[in-house]
Amino acid sequence: MLPKIGVAVVGCGRIGFSHMDAVVKNSNKAFLAAVVDVDEARAKKAAQDFSTQYYISLDKALEDSKVDAVVVCLPNNEHYPIATKAMKIGKHVLVEKPLAMNPFEAIKMIDYSRKNGLVLMAGMSFRHISAVTELKKRLNSDIGEPFNFIYMFLMPGGDVKSVPPWWTDNSKTGGFQLALGGSHTIDMTLWFFEHKKAVSIYAQAQAQEGFEGYSEITLMMMFDDGAMATNHLSSNTKPPKHEILVVGPKGSASLFPELKNNLGLVGVPTTDLFINGELIMSGCPERHNFAIQMEEFINAISEKREPWVKLDQIITSLTIIEAAKKSIELGKPIAL
Fold first, then answer.
1. Nearest alpha carbon to residue 152 among 216, 73, 97
2. Would you say 242 and 256 are in contact if contact means Cβ atoms under 8 Å apart?
3. Could you give the CA distance from residue 95 to residue 81 in angstroms, rounded to a whole number?
4. Domain CATH number, residue 188
């Protein structure tokens, strides 16, 4: 048997707990070697909840010989420096979305990981939702090559007092919902249209009082074969609406990932999948999307390969986010 992979989760906020639970659910292949947070009370609580040790110093955690891999669950602007620091010490890295603040940082990270034989994985957890992967598997046979994709990710983000403080700072988010939610919606669009090339981007947006960056966004993507996609993003919508519609020549499919569950974990949806009007899957499996994602990360390390979430698509996604910012600023479509 291969030795178990020791994983340290850096950042003990809301999403950090979903990754910690994911490690525990892969206890046959990995173990939670440590949790890390500059807030000692938060780090200590996470360590108690998951029966592991904690560090308030990242350097100390990286020096721990039991730590083989690191999961970065920090504000977006810290993804590149922290991931790079971990890789330079020889650690494999899974980074919460977005992988980096821009495509230039991402390219540097990817180049370093490949040159040094390290696994670098972008944490695109929505791709690992069981109902999503089921639709992707059945896409061409059940609805044909899709030509339209509509993603509505409309959430009640709350006011400045109820959200993580860094959400209000554009230098840390990289565009607020364009980076937070758009990382998911753009990635899903590119994955379902993976044989197509995005050729132009047009976006419009509004800002929310107290927040830097954009809280209401409509983003349109045109592809080289005439296919189109629209992403609607919001942090002002009550009640929330989270829906995906995929249209092809044989019919359509709809996903309804409701972001609440009985597991108490952030980012783990209860999802209904309809294909041509028929309910195919429903609910939230105990082996949730973060656990499935973590298994792929661990397997990639053990098998010395890149994860199946293609890093080139991640660069394209970040490039589209940058193009959307430019489109919003100039008020016109941007060619890629």
1. 216
2. yes
3. 11
4. 3.30.360.10
What does the block give as tokens for 198? 């995005």
Determine contact, residues 16/35, Cβ cutoff 8 Å: yes
Q: Which residues pair with 236 in a beta bridge?
A: 156
Could you tell me which of 257, 254, 106, 286 has the C-alpha nearest to residue 181?
257
Structural contact between residues 260 and 155, judged by C-beta atoms closer than 8 angstroms:
no
Token digits for 130?
């069981």
Asked if 230 and 219 count as a contact pair (C-beta separation under 8 A), the reply is yes
pTM: 0.96
Two structure tokens written together for 72: 């970065």
Question: Parallel, antiparallel, or unpaired for β 236-248 and 148-156?
Answer: antiparallel
Query: How far is 201 from 205, CA to CA, in rounded Å?
Result: 13
Residue that the structure tokens 């937070």 belong to: 180
Structural contact between residues 76 and 176, judged by C-beta atoms closer than 8 angstroms: no
CATH of the domain at 55: 3.40.50.720
Please say if the pLDDT value at position 242 is more than 80: yes
Query: 62 CB contacts (<8 Å, ≥6 apart)?
Result: 70, 85, 86, 89, 91
Question: Which of the four pLDDT bands, split at 50, 70 and 90, describes residue 259?
Answer: confident
pLDDT at res. 31: 98
Judgement on whether residues 242 and 301 belong to the same structural domain of the protein: no
- Return the number of other C-beta atoms located less than 10 Å from residue 303's C-beta: 10
155 and 94 share a domain? no
Counting other chains too, the contacts that 163-166 makes at CB distance below 8 Å and 24 or more residues apart are: 164/13, 164/14, 164/75, 166/75
